[in-house]
Write a structure and sequence with these properties.
The protein has helices at residues 2-7, 23-34, 38-58, 62-86, 91-116, 143-150, 181-191, 225-234, 244-249, 302-310, 329-348, and strands spanning 14-17, 122-123, 131-132, 159-162, 165-168, 173-175, 197-201, 222-224, 254-258, 267-270, 279-284, 289-294, 315-318, 322-327. The chain is α/β, with parallel strands linked by helices and 349 residues long. The mean pLDDT is 96.
Length: 349
Amino acid sequence: MIADIIVNSLDLRFVVVSATYNSTNELEEIANAATKSTCHSKDLIASFLFKHESLARELEVLNFCQASFEQFKLEAINYCDQIHESLEVSSELMDALYSLGERFSSVILYSFLKEKLHHEVEHLDARNVITTNTRFRDATPLFGIIERNLTNLDKTKVYITQGFIGKTIDGRTTTLGREGSDYTASILAWAIKATRLIIWKDVGGILSWDPKIHDGAYKLSEISYDEATLLTEAGAKVLFHRTMNPLKERSIPLEVKGVYAPTEHGSVISNKPHGKILGLVETKKQDYSLLSICGNKLISNASINQLIETEINNLHEYNDNLATFKINSQRRDSLLEKIVQIVTHSFDS
């Protein structure tokens, strides 16, 4: 499915790949195990390797991936030996381990495109272009250096690379923060002055709320960079919170599309604002939930003001772009229904 999208895409320069499902959590488990036992951590490394070997075997590219996989395994064992020796998981060693998730998946995709579909692509280690500072696990990209790094690449080729990971000036692996692959894509788009960026998700765009909390969500067909940032900062998980900054600086439109319906229109993020209520975001805590209405001109919205009057004791934050209620589990469902009605009315009007 992903391979078909790549093969059928025109004017493509970079494909940024995330790790396979749950890999980041599995790598954290490997690191934590290494503080106690190298035997247990090696067993977990073997399971991690087996998962990726199984995927490569299913795609009939294991022979092409084997050398890289062996190198990655040896790296993982070395990192775990260092963790065990120090009896703690440093941020630097955790980043080195984290990088293996994206590196495994990118080798598999590259091998499938190159060897099975005979598609002209090149494999690129993102760490050779995404230069960052030394703030491990939440690194800041050094944009000027990155832009210069990319001038050395062949502009006629399509590169398969990794999201999330980078490297310091002195060569140590870093990461951009959990779920940072979107950010990598926007950094690369900024650096090459791309005409657009497409991010492919399981859902076919940015929705007015998570379908897991309530049915009937609307697709936001067009929103601005600032509106997208508002949603992510409120807790929406559809995009990494720093993704918008590079795109906004160079006015590069971003389209969020669904891998299961690649021909359907997604959500376009650009300088053009939606202008109304954007949607609902829920952040669950141990004993309560934060229900947030995100949008524009909320203070002058009569329906929201009426809701605030009845829920004043639960109001947590309120400004022209955000109205957040702190609510316990007993009252959560009834307040959620009221907010859904307000958001729905805004979309229908």
